[in-house]
Amino acid sequence: MSTNISKQKRDALLDKITQIKNFISASPQDENTENLLAYIGELTKEINGKKYGLVFEEHREKIDELLEENAPVLVEDESLFIDNGGQMNFLIEGDNLAALKLLEKTHKGKIDVIYIDPPYNRGTKANKDFMYDDCYIDDTDEYKHSKWISFISKRLEIAKKLLTHDGIMFISIDEHEVENLKLLCNEIFYEKNTEFLIWRKNGKQGNTKKILRFKNTHEYIIACYMNREEKRLGKCKLFPNWKNDYPNPDNDPRGNYKAGNISLMEEKSDPQSPNYYTVTTPSGKQYTREWFISKEEFERLDNDKIENSDGILLGRIYYPNNGDGVPALKIFKSEEQYYYFDSIIDEMGTFTDAKDELVPLFNDRDAFDTPKPVKLIQEIIRISQPELQINKRKSSTILDFFAGSGTTGHAVMKLNAEDGGNRKFILCTNNQNNICRDITYERLRTVISGKRKDGSDYDESYPASLKYFKIDYLPIKDKMYYEYADELLEHVKELVELENAIDFNSNKSVTIVLDDDELDDFVENISDYPECKTLYMGHDVLTSYQQEQTIKAHGITINTVPDYYYRDLAN
């Protein structure tokens, strides 16, 4: 058996503290001895604390002090509203710690997927990517790692609260903080719920005499699950690697093909899945299991017939082993195929691809320093919500609180257009160097409208809408709640819009009343709201019996705004 030297030293120190405690306890008691005994209790508790994990010097940010003395609120910039149908999405300008605290009110347990690409804390003069309290952190700062960990830990702790019971979070990072971040994620999400992925950010290195050490061609992505054992991931979409010439055993006139797997093994299938059904092969053999496509889609592909040179009609479904094998899907050379995600992520775009994607948007590949390719984020979101989950949910919500150039929003819209999904996104970034307004928003506006800032056509456009919120602060220090309650009430509308993905300004089917006077006015003029179907009402607004009957008679449903919208969350 190994000897735990640290434990021996700790026990010896505790024994000495106990002797001191016993001596003080046996002495005449007064206020001083009581204080000393309390101090000893604190020391004992500290020594008996956790002995394994991430240890760092905790630092406070200016935003911590700002939030202690002020209540964060949302203010809409209505001039930046985009109405192009589809889902309502949100871009929040401001410190993401304040944004996360507001999201804790509106989206606790409601976010399906989080992807973030935080500053990497490279600490070099050429790559000053991490700003802490208005100063860039470099290698001369002896607390560079502690400051970064303090910064990211507060945000991850809140982010976890926002995830659904089967939610998942992905964090991009490089070698500068990857070890610390993994330990931190183990602490917050538990070690069993975290794992490493490796993304090839650059192309493979050819022969060269210029490189005298290993060429860094990768970054990391840490996946954090709420419950890894219960989370089911889907397949990603890639073009197949046609290094060899695949056969054409049934002489299909569409050409050579791969036999793509479209089912789970029977023992891994979920009988409760809507895609759990029985398939009968031409030979009469039956396979009952969970398939990656619906029964209707399977039958459509099987009946998509084309005649070969022998006069035989062939479908898109391939039955190997003379009709006895598990049915597969014919994947022809020009088509995409679905694969399970590997822990090493390749062929999903590189850093160069991400830079190139900025050119048609901004006519400048350096508009943002560290973008990620749309394909990478799109496939991360795709695997996080396989068809089984999408069928169970009317919609899902994706959050990125280090939004940068807006790739996550772009990827969500692109994926929705491809698979008919109903995802919506919430992005947050500060406006350092005008990034939120000039880069993040401008990119989203361009890909939604299909028009660049100069009016020229862009080759994508999506049915999606966007609200632009800014974080503001209401002073509350040394004030009682009633002293700032009315001012806080003025910003509740934005929280309701954020939670429910709605717009009170243009959507006539919803309206909101936050005090008794507003309710009286609404009921008195209810005929002016013929399209209204839902009334959001402040938690302390009281309706009379007659008012309730009038509202009900017009087919309007009342939703009460939670009372915690008005106050700070309990710690």
Keywords summarizing the entry:
571 residues, globular, three-stranded antiparallel sheet, alpha/beta, 17 helices, 34% helix, ten-stranded mixed sheet
In short:
This protein has 571 residues and is α/β, with parallel strands linked by helices.
Task: Describe the overall structure.
The strands form 7 sheets. A 10-stranded mixed β-sheet has the order 1-21-2-20-19-3-6-8-7-18, with helices on both faces. Strands 10-16-15 form a 3-stranded antiparallel β-sheet. Strand 13 and strand 14 (about 315) form a beta hairpin. The protein starts with a helix and ends in an 11-residue tail after the last strand. The protein has 17 helices and 24 strands. The mean pLDDT is about 85. It is α/β, with parallel strands linked by helices and about 575 residues long.
Low-pLDDT parts are none
Report the average pLDDT across residues: 87
Q: What is the CA-based Rg, rounded?
A: 29 Å
Helix and strand composition category = alpha/beta
Helix segment tally: 17
Distance between the termini: 43 Å
As a percent range, the share of strand residues is 15-25%
Question: In which range does the helix fraction lie?
Answer: 25-40%
Main β sheet profile: 10 strands, mixed
Strand order of the largest sheet: 1-21-2-20-19-3-6-8-7-18
Q: How many DSSP-defined strands?
A: 24
Shape annotation: globular
